[in-house]
Amino acid sequence: MRSITIKIGETTLEGELGQSKTARMIWDALPFAGTGQTWGDEIYFRVPVAAELENPRETVEIGDIGYWPTGHAFCIFYGRTPASSGDDIVPASPVDVIGRVTSDVSVLKGITDPGRVTVEKGM
């Protein structure tokens, strides 16, 4: 796993990227930043990576980091989205899960305007 640091406003989270081709492309593009948007309990923003789906997932887990090819977006899932039903966390369309947030993502609950999001290689 490759360690990353995610800064969302005043909040800093630690995470790790996996070994997939897309995760390596994200790692190689770091550091990057963008203006975060929310969709339910998901923060996402466009990144300088264009990849195809490798292992599409229609549901994800709390703390998953996804790559959404439709929007070339880095996604952090911390709860239900508008597409969710029951307890499932459902992205807008399939994503590749490229890593996990290892910090407590519940600190993101209630954020409606995440502002600038920065992702960089961890220590």
Descriptive report:
Strands 1-2-7-5-6-4-3-8 form an 8-stranded antiparallel β-barrel. The mean pLDDT is 96. A hairpin with a 3-residue loop joins strand 3 (32-38) and strand 4. The protein has one helix at residues 21-29, and strands at residues 2-8, 11-17, 32-38, 42-46, 64-68, 73-77, 96-101, 115-121. The chain has 123 residues and is mostly beta strands. The longest helix has 9 residues, at 21-29.
**Based on CA inertia axes, which overall geometry fits?**
globular
Total domain modules: 1
DSSP strand tally: 8
Q: What is the gyration radius calculated from CA atoms? A: 13 Å
Tell me the CATH architecture: Beta Barrel
What would you call the structural class? mainly beta
Short recap of the structure:
The protein is mainly beta and 123 residues long. The chain is built from one helix and eight strands, in the order ββαββββββ. The chain has a single domain (2-121), classed as Beta Barrel (Cyclophilin).
Supply database-style keywords.
1 helix; mainly beta; Cyclophilin; eight-stranded antiparallel beta barrel; about 120 residues; about 40% strand
Protein topology:
Blueprint: E1 2-8, E2 11-17, H1 21-29, E3 32-38, E4 42-46, E5 64-68, E6 73-77, E7 96-101, E8 115-121
Antiparallel strand pairs: 1-2, 1-8, 2-7, 3-4, 3-8, 4-6, 5-6, 5-7
